[in-house]
Each structure stands twice: as structure tokens, then as C-alpha cells.
Amino acid sequence: MIPLACWNVQGLNRRDHQMAVCDLVREFHLQFIGLLETRVASHNITRIQSCMLSGWKWFVDPVRPDNRIWLAWDTSEVTMHVLVAHEQCIHCRVHHLRSHTHSLVTIAYGVNDVYPRRELGTQLVDFLDGVGDDPWIVLGDFSTVLDASEVCGSSSDYNTAMGDFGSFLIDTGLVALPSRGAIFTWHNCSDGSRSLWKKLDRMLVNDRWLLQWPHATCFNASPRTSDH
After folding, report:
1. Which InterPro entries match (predicted)?
2. N or C, which end of the chain has less CB nearby within 10 Å?
């Protein structure tokens, strides 16, 4: 199985954020990573990438001018081919050189607004038609919770968003990988009565993934230089 991760970095212009990415890759021996909310201007992309992960290749989402989603992979361990790039997700095929296995990998980053975010669900359901017997994993920041147990603290009503997400899981048949580490993956950086924690980030897989890697787990790391 390919050691992979996705992280909403809340910007990559600062050196400490760049180093945090490198530290994450080293700590978990990652070979593929999706970086969300990069906030890097187009003319600075090459310079920022040169400061991280020497020898890796990069793909920048061409759909959004603010470069919301970046992909990076270790070319000595994996090959990667982008299949489709959308505003809120990128679908790709990743081949692991050592094990001679491959999988479909989708990096997802849902927008904050409920109704535009429905497009992400539509794009994932549409992609399902081409998955066939391939193992498929969808990971990233979905910008919504599944139910009230994934929220800790004061929050507004999420019934619509939770209903949308639940329907999406039924439509795709994707299930969450067993997880370890932090229960909640996002914090609003407030204290006291204003403190709010949510589980916004997750790894979802299809049946074929579970058959091929039955012992796979998701580890939710604690926030570092980001609120995720």
C-alpha cells in the first residue's frame, strides 16, 4: 500500500509551513501527499515547490487560479497520472513501484458553502462509473461533518450539510477507513465557550480497497501550523 496523506496547510508562503510539510512526510514515510489551501500566487509556485521535498514531482490544480490543491509524489517510489481535475477534487491513478500495485486516488477539498459543495458529491458519484474493479480512496477536507458526534462545541445547524454527506456515502458505497489519533481534525483556534472542534477531514475507500489492503488505517495527526 502507498503511504499517502492529505493536509489543509492554510498557506505555503511561510517557511514554517513549508518545513511542516517536510516534517510530516519524513515522520510518516509518505510517498504521496495532497496539499490544500496553498494560497500561493502563480508566479511563486516554482520557488515555493523548490523549498520542499527535493526530487519529488508536483501537480497544481489548473482549474482554480488560487491554486487550492497541489499533489506531490516521490518518483523513486510511485508514478502518478492525473485523470480528471475539478475545482473541488483531483482524480488520479497511482502506481506503487515496489509492490507493483495501483489504485485510484482522489484528493478532495470541499468549498465552505453547502450548495456549491454539492458539486463535489456529484463529481465523485460520476467518477464512480469509471472505477470498475480498481481500489479507490478519496481523502481530504470535505468541509462538513457526517453527524452531530463529529462536532464539539458551539455550532450552527448542519442538518442540510449532514444529509448531503450521508446521501453521498450511500450513493458511492464508500466507507471510512478505521482511524487512529485525533478524533476531531479542525479547530477554530478559539478558547472557552467559543471553542469549536469538528471532524472535517477523512479517508474514504471502496470495497476493492478494503479487500486489497484489509489492515489499512487512517491516522489523524494533531494540528501543526494549520487549524487542521
Report:
1. Endo/exonu/phosph_ase_sf (IPR036691)
2. N
Q: Where are the domains of the chain?
A: 4-220
pTM over 0.90: yes
Which superfamily does CATH assign the domain made up of 4-220 to? Endonuclease/exonuclease/phosphatase (3.60.10.10)
Average pLDDT, stretch 17-28? Answer: 96
State the CB neighbour count (10 A cutoff) for residue 175: 14
User: What whole-number distance in Å separates Cα of residue 184 and Cα of residue 197?
Assistant: 6
Sequential DSSP letters for the chain:
---EEEEE-S-SSSHHHHHHHHHHHHHHT-SEEEEE-----GGGHHHHHHTSSTTEEEEE-SS-TT--EEEEEETTTEEEEEEEE-SSEEEEEEEETTTTEEEEEEEEE--SSHHHHHHHHHHHHHHHTTTTTS-EEEEEE-SS-SSGGGEEES----HHHHHHHHHHHHHH--EEPPEEE-S--EE-S--GGG-EEE--EEEEE-HHHHHH-TT--EEEPPPSSS--
pLDDT tens, residue by residue, 37-60 = 999 998 999 999 999 999 999 999
Give residue 165's pLDDT. Answer: 84
Q: What is the pLDDT of residues 166-202, one digit of tens each?
A: 888 989 999 999 999 999 988 877 777 788 888 999 9
Determine how β-strand 179-181 pairs with β-strand 175-176.
Answer: unpaired
